[in-house]
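If you are new to this repository, start here. Below is one unmodified record pulled from the training split, so you can see the exact layout before writing a loader.
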Amino acid sequence: MSHYGPVPRFRADRWNLQVFGATATGEKYSWTFEEVTALPTATITADLHCASGTSTLGHEFFGVPASLLLELAPPAPGVTHVMAWAEYGYSANLRLADFTADRTLLATHHNGETLTAEHGFPLRLVVPHLYGYKGPKWLRGIEYMTRDRRGFWEERGYHNIADPWTGQRHSYQEDEQPQG
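And here is the target side for that same chain:
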């Protein structure tokens, strides 16, 4: 899996996962790594799809279902999107329905092993039904949004939705209408 920039160093005493933005209470929520790993977990088997056109099959991920965050840190009415924030300011925007999909996971393990630093340790967002750039490694926060805003790669010409089954790789495709 590719990444942009250097691999960050994990320091448990400085790491937390935050949920902020348009929360129902107006408050910011925060969990330490120890608290995140104590949350209920799930295992999924998923294929990963790169916007370059390659796919790798049969990955097993273990971690916290993303939908659980909405129970622990409820969004305000009107939230339609989230921004997933990672180390170094990297971000990926997602429709709320994509973030809460059954197989979207805050992964801590890959194929039975703790994630390596290169693969996103301590926490990686896995959104298997979208291209990989929608699932940032080194996840640090989820921002609830009442309107869409483009993330890192989306601002640089990648498709805003990123559905691999319809080939949504580039932003110029957003204006294309199906012929029929």
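Two things worth knowing about this chain: The chain has one domain: 40-173. The first strand starts at residue 17 and ends at 21.
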